[in-house]
Amino acid sequence: MKINIYKSIYNFQETNTNFLENLESLNDDNYELLNDKELVSDSNELKLISKVYIRKKDKKLLDWQLLIKNVYLDTEEDDNLFSESGHHFDAILFLKEDTTLQNNVYIIPFGQAYHDINNLIDYDFGIDFAERAIKNEDIVNKNVNFFQQNRLKEIVNYRRNSVDYVRPS
């Protein structure tokens, strides 16, 4: 299983509060606190405080699936190809080391939940971690791209026989 781990820009309480306030502002009250638990390693050296939020969504057909189903599928057996029964689940796991020294909160989204944590995460965490974990002589190229909501939009028109400029006669 592949997971993505993010670091929160807030402490544990603020992370949970901001997450819930963001859901409230989006009128998305589908996340429920499944459990909050203290996790302890076998050697008792590491203690983590965790909270898991889960969202259950009814399975819906995508537009392209509806198109194929309505246009190309004729039999009952074909209808079962794109079944609408069942559910999708999204989950978000918040983790914090249970010490007074560390205030770092880590977030692990599952399913499509990564959309719901954008306002909580430190975008530089991954590259900062890689810089510390990888030797400098092993780094060939570093690149960070951000796609923000404010994008530069430009339309360029070119017409070959335009009369916008003076032509010799």
TrEMBL record:
<dbReference type="InterPro" id="IPR026487">
    <property type="entry name" value="CHP04141"/>
</dbReference>
<dbReference type="Pfam" id="PF19614">
    <property type="entry name" value="DUF6119"/>
</dbReference>
<protein>
    <submittedName>
        <fullName>Uncharacterized protein</fullName>
    </submittedName>
</protein>
